[in-house]
């Protein structure tokens, strides 16, 4: 038995909108055996553009029953039957949400006449209900009213059953079929083509623009997890409606997928990626020459496109490290901006400063010690390669850290010896680094020493 359904609502999201009209036709596979229809008082004003579209006004629903008054009857009609609608997840999400509020748990098998029509009647320019009815000569009356649209869906479903020579309906009802959970505009073959390997996947909208980037240990499994469930939230429903296609890039390891995802989020700035978009307020050491020719070692916030000598999370950490450099290399606290008042340089009193701030020490001598301090900072930063599985058995993946900086990553044939960074760079793709990637690699290096090769 089938319950062929159409509803009208106050908006496009179940958690923020309400139902204004419900029509249900119970069909035994041959004919309609029961019909139910009712207006519903949504408990909120109907937006004017919805009134113009459906013809349902606030005055029409003023004396209509609230949903809780008809919830039990609707539940009893729907629950034993296969739930059918044109864009089934829209109608199902609204009714399931409203019934859940009233204490009823809707758990039906579903069929979507949009998806079935694409399979049974391929090649149509559009699969909207109005266009399908024109193509198939279905007489649709009271368009955008629940009863009119539901009756047209009944006729469409009867035509689908008659023309279904390939068993599309049975396949869609199969417990193994995941198609009913997919976003309306996403072809099933896009999911079937996904590999079960680590990598990065991209959701594209109708115009091909990337709207979401994700990483995965298993691309197919992770992508399908986005579509399970029937969340009624506005953001999720909008997100699913905007997915029209998927592309992907395999990576040798999950770690590489993490890195590539971070790079791609910052490159593409996708609409539905919120994490990693925040502006990083990390700090770093920078060196520059002032107008008198003295090299100045300074702590500054990291800025876009800047390349610090050394980075740290807390400014207190930077001050501690800077004091050590001043002490060990006899630098001037004032020229390093550690002392910012007009008092006499504290470095002269403790003999760490040799008078550069008073021009008693020439720039050439002072700058030599600054360069030694910079070299010391850089020498403390490790250079290593992370070696792991490739995308195929004949290669290995490589991630290069050079003097504490992320250079890039790529794949090297297993018969090529990894000996120095200059040779390795011919095989690698250089990527921009960010604090997320640096912290990720530092953490990985401390817990996976066996996969590191120091160079």
UniProtKB/TrEMBL annotation:
InterPro entries noted in UniProt: DnaQ (IPR006054), GIY-YIG_endonuc (IPR000305), GIY-YIG_endonuc_sf (IPR035901), GIY-YIG_UvrC_Cho (IPR047296), Ribonucl_H (IPR013520), RNaseH-like_sf (IPR012337), RNaseH_sf (IPR036397)
Query: Which residue intervals define the domain GIY-YIG in the entry?
Result: 196-274
* UniProt xrefs under SMART domains: EXOIII, GIYc
Q: Which PROSITE patterns match?
A: GIY_YIG
A single GO BP term for this record reads: nucleotide-excision repair
Q: Name one GO molecular function term.
A: DNA binding
GO cellular component terms, semicolon-separated: cytosol
Q: Which Pfam families match?
A: GIY-YIG, RNase_T
PANTHER family (alphabetical): DNA POLYMERASE III SUBUNIT EPSILON
Q: What does this protein do?
A: DNA polymerase III is a complex, multichain enzyme responsible for most of the replicative synthesis in bacteria. The epsilon subunit contain the editing function and is a proofreading 3'-5' exonuclease.
- Quaternary structure (record): DNA polymerase III contains a core (composed of alpha, epsilon and theta chains) that associates with a tau subunit. This core dimerizes to form the POLIII' complex. PolIII' associates with the gamma complex (composed of gamma, delta, delta', psi and chi chains) and with the beta chain to form the complete DNA polymerase III complex.
Q: What is this protein called?
A: DNA polymerase III subunit epsilon
User: What organism is listed for this UniProt entry?
Assistant: Chitinophaga barathri
Q: What is the lineage of its organism?
A: Bacteria, Pseudomonadati, Bacteroidota, Chitinophagia, Chitinophagales
